[in-house]
Input
Amino acid sequence: MSLQYDLIALDVDGTLLTDDHILTKDIRETVCEAASRGAQIVLCTGRGPLSALPVMEELGLKGTLITHNGAATINADDRSVVHQFDVVPDHLLPFINYCRNHSIHFDLNTAFEMMIETRTPEAEQMYSRFQAKPAIQDFRLGLPNGLVKFTAFGTKDKMDQVQAEWAGWPPLLKSIRSGDFFIDVHHAEANKGRALQQLADLRGIDRSRILAIGNYYNDITMLQFAGMGIAMGNSPEEVKRAADAVARSNSDNGVAAALREYAWS
Output
């Protein structure tokens, strides 16, 4: 059987992993089979590198990670930054002040560091699930350079409200829903599709030879850029409409089934 794609881009949460953040044996073996056939496996995630690397290691693979929704592309082998979209720190101040005034938890991220002002039990539990270990920092003393992403975290209802309000803000930065409980803010040009295009150009891979699988709004640009974009069965309808095909859900080994159906023949 011949491999149909040279690069396979996989979202992590809600796609590669179950809702309990488990990588099933079927998915691990099928992804590794695609790699053994010659496909370059690239994880494309809203996570930072330190939260994404354990997933790559669990797969038993090395290579490239597109992290922070495309804001930082990382070489997993030596943990070097291939490319990142820096945010002007002062442009984040309205988002920070909003979260402070409305008691919404948030974190700031450079390519490899995650920083928070306060800890809450809910946030601690959330970070633990994502294998993230944020450092406490007083942002009132100044914001660090090299920032690539700001994330607000809260209940779905709260994030729905925040998303509606931020949608009308001036477009110096882009805010995007990366999950029911998260809104990410980063450089206006940063997204998974753009990062995937940069990587494809760097490696001389035509977009027709790229397969991408994702499940949420931050995956749409990636699904649209790839020659074959597959939305998970657990995706919102808007994401499914942006894709070329729809797989089974992440609770039903959807990635494994999709790879067996589309990645080789």
